[in-house]
Design a protein that fits this description.
By secondary structure, the protein is of the alpha/beta class. It contains four helices and seven strands, in the order αβββαβαβββα.
Length: 191
């Protein structure tokens, strides 16, 4: 009978070792052979690139530098001064995304790069107070924004260092932009 006790204790030992090793082995197999299919971000991540900072001016004709926005997250859009319905919808989304951030909304700026030499209607400008209305017709800045069709189709995010990092497709759900901004603001220590 004295020989039966060690056999039982060895079985228990091997069960404990297997219970400890099984999760590590499963994690290794999943990591190596099953890449994650879901992504966390809702918008399309872009290769971070600094934007040129030349040829921009405010509606009053004074020079504007993107460096003025450094240290803040920027929700940007490009469109003509005529601003049809999709343009107005994007302006509305930019405002709502910023407001949805609550106490963090001061960390976000809104930027409309006007792609022609026109000026938006005064009523439109008054309705979106706090948005930077910047003439970019003679600037290389709009060409730096990658687009599937046209830059005016997208909403973009610029990080606090002045790098273009993300874009959203035409007619993107603003809740997706809100989620991404929440995640960026939570993770960011620079802006």
């Amino acid at each position: 009978m004295p020989g039966a006790a060690p056999k039982r204790s060895l079985t228990s030992l091997w069960l404990i070792i297997a219970a400890a090793a099984a999760p590590m082995a499963a994690a290794y197999v999943l990591y190596q052979f099953l890449p994650p299919s879901a992504r966390v971000n809702r918008g399309e991540l872009l290769e971070p690139r600094p934007l040129p900072d030349a040829g921009l001016q405010l509606l009053d004709g004074s020079a504007f530098k993107l460096a003025r926005l450094k240290g803040k997250w920027v929700l940007a859009m490009i469109d003509t001064a005529r601003c049809d319905e999709p343009c107005r919808r994007k302006l509305h989304h930019l405002r709502q995304v910023r407001l949805a951030q609550g106490r963090n909304m001061d960390r976000i700026e809104r930027l409309w790069l006007i792609a022609d030499r026109g000026e938006p209607e005064p009523v439109l400008a008054a309705g979106f107070e706090g948005t930077w209305f910047v003439q970019a017709a003679s600037s290389p800045v709009p060409a730096a924004f990658p687009a599937a069709n046209a830059p005016s189709d997208h909403i973009y995010i610029i990080d606090p260092l002045g790098n273009l990092i993300m874009r959203y497709p035409p007619n993107a759900d603003p809740r997706d932009v809100v989620k991404d901004m929440e995640r960026l603001l939570r993770a960011s220590r620079i802006g």
